[in-house]
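Box 3.1. Reading complex inputs
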Amino acid sequence: MTSSSTLRERFAASLMPNYGVPPVVLTLGRGCEVYDADGRQYLDLIAGIAVSSLGHGHPAMVKAVAHQAATLAHTSNLFVHEREVELAERLVGLLGGDAKVFFANSGTEANEAALKLVKRAAGPGRHYFVAASHGFHGRTSGSLALTGKDSIREPFGPFGMDVRFVPHGDLDALRDAVDESCVAVFTEPTQGEAGVVPAPEGYLAGVREICDATGAAFVLDEIQSGIGRTGAWFAHQSEDVRPDVLTLAKGLGGGLPIGACVGFGDYADAFHKGDHGSTFGGNPVACAAALAVIDTIENEGLLAHTAVMGDLLAEQLDGIDHPLLAGQRGSGLWRALELSGPHAAHVQEQAAVRGFLVNAVAPDAVRIAPPLVITPEQIGVFIEALPTILDAAEAAATKEQQ
Ligand SMILES: Cc1ncc(COP(=O)(O)O)c(C=O)c1O
């Protein structure tokens, strides 16, 4: 097998430098374990950024994908196929009805669809959008315009859209920002890319109320939080609030690329024929994978399991007394270690050295989003190793400062 170092060199020579050169080269995954090109084993605590919800190589996923690839791999949107209809019906069922779905291939495309949908539905005189500072909605131009992270948005503007940012979770600021001229409010329930930062309780109900009062559309981005990650099918269900438009991706396909934009009520039928489309969106293989994900979450009781494992992880993290670990936040199997200093990159590196894949999502936050099938034993192994990882990260940070 080609070694990690050779593949990293070839990556650097042949792929654009936008990702840098990722430090680990993965070749094989089994359950929650992955292996690199040099045969080293890792416990996967990031699941391809909250994507591989069933872990790697789950038999239900393998069977569904293999069967669909052998039966009918692609149709385009010129033809109907059964898997897209089944998947749309399943999602609408999980969401309580009165909704319709558009399928895309990724999160950012789901948000692009949402953006066009709310523009199409908006009455005359509505001309601006409101989104949250530090929020993340994707890298294509429309989604990027709504992304509240200056460092990644500003180099690529202007976007030809009036987007106003308010602090995440601040309902007073949102109330001041939204009036009858606002097309839509885009928000995440918990900001994933900002470092798994939850909004205060009652935030989504407050957004709903502000949107109802002004007629602005409420677009909820559950691309990272949806499909079981928090221990519920969708994070908004814990507040019993329904948005006008919901976007999904990541965990929906369990590793195959799929995104979804769901419109509720009037938003279900807001697109006119010809308004939007995607050659690959709702591809039969990706839909078959998503159906396998939903079936397996149901059949294996993974919502309850996620909630229990999430509580266990939180409790065990809370039990660690280490100067670098200031706390933890998040819900279900979607957590961030809060560090007392900006040493997340060192924690990520030292964790990998010891066989754990975690993600330095912010300078002082390490994201943990393992497959939903993680076991108490696997959580225990990580917790046991964590103090040593934190010691090594502190030592590396000190060395770097010298
Ligand atoms: C909340 C949220 N929205 C949108 C996206 C963009 O998804 P994708 O990378 O599939 O385009 C992400 C990706 O991290 C995300 O976390």
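In summary: The mean pLDDT is 97.
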